[in-house]
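TL;DR need structure tokens for one chain.
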Amino acid sequence: MNVAPHVPSTRQSSRQITSRLGRLRLAFAAIVLLASAVGSVGCTMGLRSAVSLKMARTKSTPRDASVYIDEEFIGPLYYVAAHGVRLLTGKHRVSVSKDGYFPWDREVDADRQPVKLDVELVPIPD
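>> reply
TL;DR here they are.
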């Protein structure tokens, strides 16, 4: 007796493929939705309010002096003075330095009100 192996019909295979693709799409959509929900919650956790920091310089202070906040370089003084910086609430150390000048340091407590600092670098005598 010669028996041919059972081969599923083309229609049945197409249905199975369509069904599998549908399940894969549904699973992918669920993963994307879950990831976006977890990501949006994770991004908002631990947010703290920020306060505006404005800096001004005297005419004798070099405009290209370097500004550091909490020992992290922010940019040249002219840029920080023109654009300002957003500080997280809390205590921060603001430093301005330039070769040939004494460093300028202040500890500020950023708490709801904008912070304004006037920077004056004093030249180191020869």
